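REQUEST FORM: STRUCTURE PREDICTION
Request ID: SP-0412
Submitted by: Lab K.M.
Chain count: 1
Length (residues): 289
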Amino acid sequence: MIDEMLRPLDYEFFRNGLAVATLAGALCGLIGVYVVLKGMSYIGHGLSHAIFGGFAASALLGVNFVLGAGAWGIASALLINGVTRRRVIGSDAAIGVITTASFALGLTLVALFGTTGLSFDAALFGSILGVSGGDVALVGVVSAATALLIFFNYRSLLFTTFDPEVADATGVHTARIDTLLMVALAASILVTMQVLGVTLVAATLVIPPTVARMLTNSFARMLALSTVIGAGCGFVGMNLSYHLDVQSGPTIVLVGATLFACVFAMTGARGRQRASGVAERFGALRAAR
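STATUS: Completed
RESULT:
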């Protein structure tokens, strides 16, 4: 039994995929806390689709996927952030307009000119078979950089997330903090697309922090729990995908969804109160004092 479970580790592609899935889950769980608490859960879905436009453009121009799609994704994130901060329209509307237009442009470019390199299906649904040692290193670098960003800007990120007006009045550079967060989010989505694909990245950004905030009203514990939950879902989902012979992305998301259902049922009304955004706000502010 144990030998059967460990057999996939004999294959290099599986070891690389397992490392990337675990790191990607942890990364999405960490950055997803801010996405969920800022009420921008839709942005993960939107940015992943915007980055697909960059994938199509980079494939057409023969530009490296990471550079082309990364630049496209960061530009989309900054554009969303700029429009939202001007308060001309709501963040959900800004995300919807910018990212769907980018996705539509990507589909049009693929239809007109086709693609080379990374396949259309791999970009949409992920391809664990294509994960290399370089991909593992890239996800590791982005994960470490994101963790350092959050560590050194913990208090600024906290107050910008919960009360941006007060944060701005007390000297916090909220524009700079929001920009850094959006760049980190775009980079996180970019490097996790190889395993999860465009269609499933959003779920890994939302499920771990949602489960975590049903379990605690402390902001610091929520960050830690969400990171661990995301990593665990990636690790378990990747192993299950091999033994069930299904794609890794859907399996990882289904593991997270199953965990969400179990926690939702066990925590009852108290967990649902935390998930509604009431208890965790006061818990986070208490933790910051």
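NOTES: The mean pLDDT is 80.
Reviewed by: T.R.
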